[in-house]
Structures are given as C-alpha cells and as structure tokens.
C-alpha cells in the first residue's frame, strides 16, 4: 500500500462529513426520522402513497438541489467516473437490491447506525466496506 | 415545519457529500483501493459525520419525542441475520464496482451527470427487484 498524498484531502473530508452528520443527526432530533437514503427512496417508491411520504420527497428534493445551488455560487468539484455503462448498470442493480435487503447503506447503517451505537449497523458497515475493498482489488489488480 | 426541516436536511446532506468528495466516484474508489494508491480521505468523512451525529442521537435518546413532536422512530430490528449480511455483501460489491452509493447517486442526478442518472435508474430497478423477490430471502 502507498498513500495517495496528491488526492488526500482530510480537511474537506472532515468538513463535509460534519455537514452529513449534522443533517443526519438533525433530521432525527427534529423529525424523529433516520436519514438513510436507500430507506427514504424505498419508502417513496414502494410504500403505498400516503401523506407521511411528503418529508421523503422534501429530503430528496433537498439532496437533488444541493449541486444546483452549488453551481449558482461556484463550479462543482471534479466528478470522475471510470466505470463503463454496463458496469454502472450492474453496480446500480446490486446497490438497489442489496441496500433494500440489508435495510440500509452508507448513510443509514454507516452514519446513523454507528452514531446510535447499533451493533447490527456496525456489522453491516464492516461487511459492505470489506466487500468494497475486495471488489476494487479484484477490479484494479486481481482480474488482469 | 417537519417538511422544511427535511428539505434543509437533504440540502445540507447533499452539500456535505459534495464538500467531502463522496459525490466523486473516483474519490470513493481511491479509498477502496487499498492495494493501489490509497486515498484515506473517506475515513475522515465517516469520522466527521459520526463526531457530529453521535451527540445529536445522544440528545435524542434523552427525549420522548422529536422537536416537531413526531415520534422518534428508533429502528427496532436488532437481529444480525442473513438478509442483513447478504444485503450488505451485495451492496458492497455494487459500491466497489462504480464508487457510487445511494446519496451520491442522487447528487449526481441533481448535477445532471448522465452516468449518475443511468446508475440511479438501475438502482431503482434493483430496489423493485427486491420488492418482487427479496422477501423470499427474508423468509427462507
């Protein structure tokens, strides 16, 4: 392993992380809801339509609006995607299916779950991180 | 009021994803690439997020209801079971393949990035697939 000092950005990572934590913790304290993105999307599209879904629409609207507002002030930071279209579709299918089956993703289990000291979320987070490491290893070094 | 808080919450969450670098898939795969040029930044995203969210959840634990008087919906499931592990495994594989998880996917849609839109459509298809047959895994 060598550290990629060129791209290492601890301060913006910490600051962005703090904003994510503020949003997730704030949503629970103010509204009593877990800010798990896969759960919010699942509730939006697959629960029967109900008034209780309005907050989910509002949260998703805020999330979609973030890059739009950002652009009003400054250029967005670099967005680089190396995956091919086929890989993106396979990845999307796996992420959608897996997060619903496992009841959460990086936000629900990773941020909210670890912050409320849930053992279940810790196991989920360690599992998807470990598989992420292995997958990237196979993709970058193992398969060729 | 709850709707306004939810919208602001989504916005702040999205800005956090942009500031932290999570919305850039190359940054995520740079973190997951332990054997290559490893970029540890995303560990700091998680650290920063938990450092702020942990005291807020701790405050919530002392309350009987949320500030808006809504019920505090603490997740009830404590089981470490097959659906949890299998789901995390499948999610981890997809996350590693593209460097995109659900929050950043929506930020990429908001930014109008075509690959982000393709990923999100596939992700919603994956969620539909779970609705169709995932419950069988839950029962078995």
From TrEMBL, chain A:
Keywords: Cell inner membrane, Cell membrane, Membrane, Transmembrane, Transmembrane helix, Transport. The chain crosses the membrane at residues 12-32, 53-70, 76-97, 117-139. InterPro entries: Sulf_transp_TsuA/YedE. It is a multi-pass membrane protein. It comes from the Bacteria. It is found in: Cell inner membrane. The keyword Mitochondrion does not apply. It holds the Pfam family Sulf_transp. The keyword Transmembrane applies. Belongs to the TsuA/YedE (TC 9.B.102) family. This is Membrane protein. It comes from Silvimonas iriomotensis. The lineage of its organism: Bacteria, Pseudomonadati, Pseudomonadota, Betaproteobacteria, Neisseriales.
From TrEMBL, chain B:
This is YeeE/YedE family protein. InterPro entries: DUF6691. The chain crosses the membrane at residues 41-60, 84-107, 113-133. It comes from Silvimonas iriomotensis. The lineage of its organism: Bacteria, Pseudomonadati, Pseudomonadota, Betaproteobacteria, Neisseriales. Pfam families: DUF6691. Keywords: Membrane, Transmembrane, Transmembrane helix.
